[in-house]
Every structure is written in structure tokens, then in C-alpha cells.
Write a structure and sequence with these properties.
Elements: H1 2-6, H2 15-25, E1 35-40, H3 46-57, E2 60-62, H4 67-71, H5 74-85, E3 90-93, H6 107-117, E4 124-129, H7 130-139, E5 147-148, H8 155-172, E6 174-178, H9 189-195, H10 203-213, H11 217-226, E7 228-231, E8 252-256, H12 274-284, H13 290-296, H14 301-313, E9 317-320, E10 323-326, H15 331-340
Helix pairs in contact: 2-3, 5-6, 8-10, 10-11
Length: 348
């Protein structure tokens, strides 16, 4: 519970307002732009941020097509978008779920992109994962649309973002320390007001965290969470009792482990090419069910099952909502693993 309060798994402070400002600057709300893509790396929160913007502005949300609509009745899905576009701006959350690597699996998304490029679908905003967008640029001409994306987090920007996530707990009495340091990792509103204490800005740790996470918010947050340790109050020589508090109410000390590499899982030795194909499919579509993996990958069913079991045991993938997903902690290793084997990777 404390980890979810310090680094909430779905918190993106400031990002919603940032996206609204970016859309306004591009003239979207004035009707000057007909289609924009919001492209983000895995775990960057781009789809969740766009969903919040759509809710604030009451834009229509287009349902993703079913497998049948992707392969057979894609015209019906495009017709529904046309009907929605005639009434209001619309958003599509998860373009990566709108195609399949199948002989007929790209027809729906190709038609959608062609209609958008021709300006026949009103004002629309597409959210798409960076792996799928890179693939669609090659396979479906997605590169013709203007795009926006979340800024990479590094240095002071990363530090301020983590501080905003942990802010309520800092105010409630948690004190963060990096390794054996006695200096505060984040500003402490109460003690700073009383004693002028300044927060330490651990540049070396932030540089390492940004590099390991590739500046992706969700990956950085997962690594950050994994490296937090709650210490007994008496373990810190500088633990203080705030003025006016009861004597028994001491500040909770949270230690931040300075070494990141031991926290990250690695891709296990899986039988080739099953592990590679499975991991690439999961990143390409932001997760996929085992049934679709069985149907689409040119592999024996038993090989896919074995690869998923090995990857899950190593903490690289996890089942969630009837689909398999790469974990944020394992994403850096998975991306490196696929890049070394010459798979098409995203540029983020």
C-alpha cells in the first residue's frame, strides 16, 4: 500500500495539461488539423493521458475493432468512425490493437489511415505504441500523419516527476534517503520551513535511472519502486520529531537503493525462435492473448506455451486481463534482446 502511495501505478501528474496545451498549440481545437497521432513507448502512459483529455473535453472514444472486423468486416468499423466524426472530435486509444500480422490483418488500419490522410474522418486523435507505429510506417504508410509524443524524463525533470508522485507521502512524514546518505532525497516542506534544510539532488542516480529506463516514465517508476526499502525510524540518525507532534510519532525513513542493475530481470535462455517471436508480438500489440499467439505465430503451440512459462518464471512477462504483457522492469532487457537479433525496434 505504501508503494502505491509513493509511486502510484497510474499517476501522470502534469501530463494531461501538457497534452492539452500541445494539442491547442497544433491548432487541433480550432479545427485547423484533422488528425494527430500520439505516439509513446511502452509504459509511457500516452493512451491513459489521452483518455483523460478525451474525458475532460467530452470527445467520443472509438471502440477498437474485433478480430473479425480486422480481418473481414473492416468497412463496418470505418463506417462507425465516419458517423462519430460527423458529430464531434474523436479519439482511438490503442491503434496497435487494430491490426494483426495476418494476410488480411492490415486492411482495417490501412483504410483508416487512408481516410484520415484524405481528411474524410473529421478531427481524430490516435494513440499508438511506438513499436506498432514503427511497423505501420513500413507496412501501412503511417508516417504521413503529424505526431506528438511524451517527453523523455531525465535529470531534474525526472527528479521533479518522482517528487510529485511521492509528494503526499513526503508531507505525511516519509523521509527519503539515497543509500547511506543522511541528506533528503526530496524537499521536506515542514523541516525546510523550520531549518532551511535543502533536498539533495542525486545527479548520478538520476542519470543512471534515466539511462536504464530510456527516459520512459512507467519504466523509471517501476525501477524506483523496486529499489525502495522501508527502514525503522531509529535506524536514521537524523530522524526528527516535528514540532507539536506526540513523542512517539517519528518520521518514516525510506531508503533508495543506489544500484539499479541488480533490480532488473534479464531475458532467460529460451528456445529460438519462439521466445523472440513471442516477445516481439507482445511489444508490437501492447500485449496479446495466448490464443492469438497460437493463431498468428508460425510456431508449434507447445513451443509458445514453453516460451511463455520460461519468460514468466524470469519475471519478463506476466498474464493480465486475458493477455500476456512484458513487464516494465524487464522492458530494457527485452528491447536490447530483440535489437541484438535484428528485430524491427522503435526509435524511443
Amino acid at each position: 500500500r505504501l508503494l502505491d502511495q509513493i509511486a502510484p501505478p497510474d499517476g501522470w501528474p502534469g501530463a494531461v495539461a501538457g497534452l492539452e496545451t500541445a494539442l491547442d498549440a497544433r491548432g487541433f481545437t480550432r479545427g485547423e488539423s484533422t488528425a494527430i497521432g500520439i505516439i509513446g513507448a511502452p509504459f509511457s502512459g500516452h493512451a491513459e493521458i489521452l483518455a483523460e483529455v478525451a474525458a475532460r473535453r467530452r470527445w467520443a472514444v472509438i471502440a477498437q475493432p474485433t478480430t473479425r472486423e480486422i480481418i473481414i468486416t473492416h468497412d463496418d468499423w470505418i463506417d462507425r468512425i465516419r458517423q462519430t466524426a460527423a458529430r464531434s472530435p474523436w479519439v482511438l486509444l490503442g491503434l496497435e490493437k487494430c491490426f494483426l500480422r495476418h494476410p488480411r490483418g492490415l486492411q482495417a488500419v490501412r483504410l483508416l489511415l487512408a481516410e484520415l490522410t484524405a481528411g474524410r474522418l473529421g478531427q481524430g486523435v490516435l494513440a499508438c505504441g511506438s513499436w506498432a507505429w514503427t511497423y505501420l510506417e513500413v507496412a501501412a504508410g503511417a508516417g504521413t500523419l503529424p505526431v506528438l509524443g511524451p517527453q523523455a524524463l531525465e535529470g531534474q525533470l525526472l527528479w521533479r516527476w518522482l517528487a510529485r508522485l511521492a509528494g503526499p507521502q513526503v508531507s505525511a512524514g516519509c523521509s527519503f534517503r539515497l543509500g547511506d546518505s543522511q541528506e533528503a532525497f526530496f524537499p521536506d516542506p515542514e523541516t525546510r520551513a523550520d531549518s532551511g534544510e535543502q533536498a539533495a539532488s542525486p545527479d548520478s542516480y538520476l542519470t543512471l535511472l534515466a539511462a536504464c529506463s530510456r527516459g520512459i516514465g512507467g519504466v523509471a517508476r517501476a525501477i524506483w519502486r523496486q529499489g525502495l526499502r522501508r527502514m525503522p525510524p531509529e535506524a536514521d540518525a537524523k530522524t526528527v520529531r516535528n514540532a507539536g507532534e506526540d513523542a512517539g510519532k517519528q518520521r518514516q525513513v525510506i531508503r533508495v537503493l543506489p544500484k539499479i542493475a541488480p533490480l532488473l530481470p534479464s531475458v532467460p535462455a529460451v528456445e529460438r525462435p519462439a521466445g523472440e517471436f513471442v516477445l516481439h508480438s507482445l511489444l508490437l500489440h501492447d500485449g496479446q492473448s495466448a490464443e492469438l499467439l497460437f493463431e498468428l505465430l508460425p510456431l508449434p503451440r507447445c513451443a509458445i506455451i514453453q516460451a511463455l512459462a520460461q519468460l514468466q518464471s524470469a519475471g519478463v512477462v506476466v498474464p493480465q486481463d486475458d493477455s500476456w504483457h512484458v513487464t516494465p522492469l524487464a522492458y530494457p532487457a527485452v528491447r536490447r534482446f530483440l535489437e541484438e537479433r535484428n528485430f524491427l525496434t522503435d526509435p524511443f
